[in-house]
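Pipeline run #58 for the internal structure catalog. This entry was flagged by the ingest filter as a single-chain record with no existing model, so it goes straight to prediction. Upstream metadata was stripped on purpose; only the residue string is passed forward. Reviewer on rotation: M.T. Logging verbosity set to normal.
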Amino acid sequence: MSFIISGMGRSGTAFVARELNRSKTWDVRHEPDASMDAGTISKRFFGADHYGEVNSHLLFCMDVIRGVDRVLILRDPLDVAVSMIRRGHPPGDLMANNIAISAAMIDRYRRTGCECRAVPLYDFKRLTKNRAYLLRLANEVGISDLAEQDFVMEPANQSAGELDWDDLSRDIRGTIERPVRWFRQIYGRTLGWDLDRR
């Protein structure tokens, strides 16, 4: 048994990997190496038992790694952008394009599945605040030796700064929001995102 958990960058993958790695029977890693090559990543899973990886890079090769369970973490793309800017990424077209490409990949996996199986979605905010919800994710990927009290729930890789969406210029907000408006409308309704924010 093996699994992949992915999502957009800045969507809690370091946090989820750390919390799930509290299992005594599973080896759960976050970005174990810098390789984004699907063949190299697939080799880590070949013959692996009780192994999981949680990182945003896997979003681009989830469909070529065979025989693993898959889960996607969703975070409002506008919050992803703010978190990236807080981490020093320059706002603008490149950031907007990267976020839009990630949104399209998530939507594709959700609509078509992988290996003829639907890919479950989990909400970033709930995962980082709700132990029962995080435990449900653990159980979804086959981790059965954790209990709610095993989770520490401390932030991992948290962005610094006080910048908020409303602090960005109207032009920057538009550049980031327009390409993902469709994505926010589809997934934000279900997950309770503030869809009036633009």
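catalog note: The chain is about 40% helix and 10% strand.
catalog note: The CA atoms of residues 63 and 114 lie 6 Å apart.
status: ready for reviewer M.T.
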